[in-house]
Amino acid sequence: MSESKCQANIIIDCDYQNYMNEDELKKLCNQLNRCYSLNRHSDAPVNLYFTSIKGKLQNFMKSLHPGYARWDVFLSEKHWSEIFSSKIIYLTGDSSNILPDCKEIQDSNDIFVIGGLIDHNRHKGLSLKRAIEEYKVQHSRLPLDLHIKLTQSRILSIPHVFEIMLNAVNKSMDDWSMIFKKVIPIRKQQLQIITDLEDSNKNEISMELKELTEARLVTLG
């Protein structure tokens, strides 16, 4: 990462262990692994931080990903607030603030924090509450509504949010719409469109989307 042309900072805040069960902690471990892989294979990786790696989460990381201590990421048992104290923007889908265009983000020195919480929406609003009351930092959300039509849920996985921000800050793409369409699965982008169509057209469009999805999987494979 030190040799990357992009020196932006993105943090995965793992200080949510008390809000997750063991299965969710294991899923978090796998999603951290996915974030590491995305960054590692990027042409312009960011400075990626995994903070509050301790306790049960640390034990699961050791068992599920034994080589994680050698990953090219900044691993710390410390809370991110002990490492950074300013220019923080906490990303949360519950924020009323919306991130500006990619160019403005790329020209800033902001540090973006992604909450490492997998809870299937049991703790709605938790990350926003912590950003405001506990950390007292700025917060914002992705401009999804302005650029893409999703299904009934705007909840994205941690790797999806990370990959979106990776593309936004490392100047590989300058347009939110292009980034969202690249990162967010086709089925999540298009399902709402299908439900808006007349019944007579649904099967035909569904088959087309299935073919697109299969083609994408073949390409990724």
Automatic annotation (TrEMBL):
Domain SAM-dependent MTase TRM10-type: start-end pairs: 1-191
Keyword annotations of the record: Methyltransferase, S-adenosyl-L-methionine, Transferase
Any one of the GO BP annotations: tRNA N1-guanine methylation
Gene3D superfamilies referenced in this protein's UniProt entry, alphabetically: 3.40.1280.30
Catalytic activity: guanosine(9) in tRNA + S-adenosyl-L-methionine = N(1)-methylguanosine(9) in tRNA + S-adenosyl-L-homocysteine + H(+)
EC number: 2.1.1.221
Cited CDD domains: Trm10euk_A
GO molecular function terms listed in the Swiss-Prot or TrEMBL record: tRNA (guanosine(9)-N1)-methyltransferase activity; tRNA binding
A GO cellular component entry from the record: nucleus
InterPro entries named among the record's database cross-references: MT_TRM10-typ (IPR028564), MT_TRM10-typ_sf (IPR038459), tRNA_m1G_MeTrfase_euk (IPR007356)
Protein name: tRNA (guanine(9)-N(1))-methyltransferase
